[in-house]
Every structure is written in C-alpha cells, then in structure tokens.
Amino acid sequence: MPRAEALARDRWIIEEEEGVDLGPAPEVSVIMPCLDEEATVGRCVRKARDWFHLNRIHGEVIVVDNGSTDQSRALALAAGARVIEETRRGYGAALMRGINESRGGYLVMGDCDDTYDFAELTDLVDPLRRGADMVVGNRYAGIQPGAMTWSHRYIGTPAISLMLRLFTGSRLKDSQCGLRAFTRDAYNGMNVDTEGMEFASEMILKAARSDMDVVEVPINYYPRDEESSAKLRTFRDGWRHLRFLVLATPSHLFTVPGVALTALGIALLVASLFGSANSVVVGEFAWQPVFAGPVLAVVGINALIFGAVARLATTARGLTPRDLTWRMARRMFKFEIAVLGAALLAGLGIAIDIALVLWSPSHELSIAALAQTLILTGANIGLCGSLAAIMNGQS
C-alpha cells in the first residue's frame, strides 16, 4: 500500500472509529463516485479543493471507491480526498454511501472523469443558499466538441427528460446531468433507494413529487480523458431508466390504457347488444364485436384495478404523493368492499346466465358475453381487492 494512502486511511480510522472530534461540520461536501479513474480523480479532487480555498468555504471531498483495480484510491487520497469503499456495485449505491458518510449541509455530486469542472461550483451552491432544494446542471448550455455521443445528446437524454416532464411536470431540459447540488434536508426527503444509473431519475421524480424547488443552471461539459473509460452502457442503463420511470408511474402504465380499453370494450358490448346485426362486414370479412368487447373490457378493468393497487405500492415507496387518488384506492380496496363488489357483479352475471337457459332472446350471444364480462370482473375485483387489503395491513 502506498505511503500516502496508508497515512490518510489511518488518520480517518483514528478520527472516526476511535471517536476523535473531526472538527466543525463542513458547509459543502463534494461526493465523487469512482471506478478505475486514476487518470482524472486526483485532478477533480484538487479542483474541488481549490474552489473551497478560493471561495473561503469549509468543505470536504469524498471519493467513493466502487471496486477500482488501479491507483484511483491512492491518487484521490494524495490529492486530499477522504476515500470510502462501497462494495455494492452501482452508481446509486456509491453515491448513497458517500452522501451518508458526508457531513456538509450542502451536498454536491459529480463524476470524477473530469467531464465536469469542480472548480466552477459557485452557480450550483448559490441557489441552495437562497432557498432552493436542488440544483441540476444543464450540459446543453455548454457541451464542448466531442463531449457527448450523438445518441445520448439527441436521443437518450431528451427522451428521458421528456418522460420526466410528462410524468412529473418537471421542466428540466437535462434531467440526466450528473453534476448537481442539494441540501441534506432535501436528500433525506427524497428517500432514494435505487443503486444503478436510474438514481439520477429517481432524485428528479421524487423531488417533483414532493414539490421541491429544483433549479437548473448552465454548466460546461468537457470530453472524457482519453485514458478514462466510459462507465455508461447506453442500452442497459437507458432501459433501467425507462423501466424505473414506467414502474414508478402507475397512472401511465395501467390507468390511462385501462380507461381506453374499458371504454372501447363497453362500446363494443353495447353495439353488439343493440345493433341490428351481430357482425360488421368489411369486404369479404365479417367481424363479430361480441367477442372483442368482453375481452377488451375485462383487460381494461383489470388494468384499472392493477393501477390502483400499484398506486398503493408506489405511494408507500414515496414515488407518488398521498393525494385524492391514493385515498380513493385505500377506501376502495377494503376487504369487505372487495367481497361485496365481487358478489354483486358475479351474482348478476350468473343470474343473467340462468335467465338465458330459461329464455332465448334474439341477442342471446351478446347477452351471454355481457354475463361472462360481469362474472370475470367480479372475480378479479374480489381477488385483487383482497390482495390489496392484505398489502394495506387489513388483517
């Protein structure tokens, strides 16, 4: 082990584990996740420390080593950073560990591949001093030639930013910028828990859900050092962002499609019940809506039920607020209400089936389809409602 690394680690072990006073808490903590960044980590640490010195700020730099096999640790320590090891792999895991270990009231996070200039942090920290909860950099205001691939610049980042705007009302133009600052209270209120690259999206989503004051400021974004390897995997990490956002917004995944499918299914059922013909003829083909109506209606109603159940789960995780929709879902999914609703709908469907045995109307097939729709819907409400009641702790 290099001498500089050994001395620095011994110092932190003595101060932290033996209870020695670390002195007054810093105003600003800069947290850098690190994985094999020996070409740039020392440079980034020195820039942050120079910014502290020039602006007379009491600060600390924390480098979270996420399994480096090169000299990143030694170089970070030699540059004056506090180095912490995080064995769980992942961008989010490293940042959560560094933030939890930090002591500053204002927290700055950023990659240590020298694409961000840690000597220019004033514009990120000043809005926090004026009352903002979080400040996110906008790389599009200062992308240097060769700094960002075309797929990230024109497809990936704009697509994820658009989804966040649609799902949360966020107005950020560059939601995936890794250079951002936030107060400790804001971070505690976000309660983030994703360990991968989707950590960045989770912060934005939860900040928006909590009505936090999020500010965007222009920053410069520089090309990666030739000796520094890129950690972002376009398709894998892009999918993780997309997967997180879709699963975290049940209204867009379940409720909106559910409303559309239910409405279309009911319309087709009504058409088959009251139409003059049982089929729609298009050229040589004849289509019978009596079969499509029940299928679409049941699938749509199931989607609405799943959306309500998912809303309970996402609210419990802090991804969605406890608003009117959440309160309605909790009231609707009580065990007694689920059982009563299931009994009424399924009972009505069974009664219609019994009536069909005794009476043969002109639209017998359409009426039978309505009966099966009622029975299936009732069964699903009973089963899903009971599951939701268990999730709500109504044992």
What does this molecule look like?
It contains 14 helices and nine strands. It has 395 residues and is an alpha/beta fold. A seven-stranded mixed sheet has the order 3-2-1-4-6-5-7, with helices on both faces. A hairpin with a 2-residue loop joins β8 and β9 (285-287). α7 packs across α8 and α11 (289-316) runs parallel beside α14.
Name the overall outline. Answer: elongated
What is the number of helical segments per DSSP (H or I, 4+ residues)? 14
Number of distinct beta strands: 9
Percent range for β-strand residues:
5-15%
Could you give the distance between the termini? Answer: 57 Å
The value of Rg in angstroms is: 28 Å
State the order of secondary-structure elements, H for helix, E for strand.
Answer: HEHEHEHEHEHEHHEHHEEHHHH
Structural class: alpha/beta
Mean pLDDT: 81
Keywords:
seven-stranded mixed β-sheet; 395 residues; alpha/beta; two-stranded antiparallel sheet; disordered N terminus; single chain; 14 helices
Q: How would you summarize this macromolecular structure in one to three sentences?
A:
The chain is of the alpha/beta class.
In terms of topology, how is this protein built?
Elements: H1 3-17, E1 28-34, H2 41-54, E2 59-65, H3 72-78, E3 82-85, H4 91-101, E4 106-109, H5 122-129, E5 134-138, H6 150-168, E6 180-183, H7 184-190, H8 199-209, E7 214-218, H9 234-248, H10 250-274, E8 280-282, E9 285-287, H11 289-316, H12 324-332, H13 335-358, H14 364-391
Helix pairs in contact: 1-3, 6-8, 6-9, 7-8, 10-11, 11-12, 11-14, 13-14
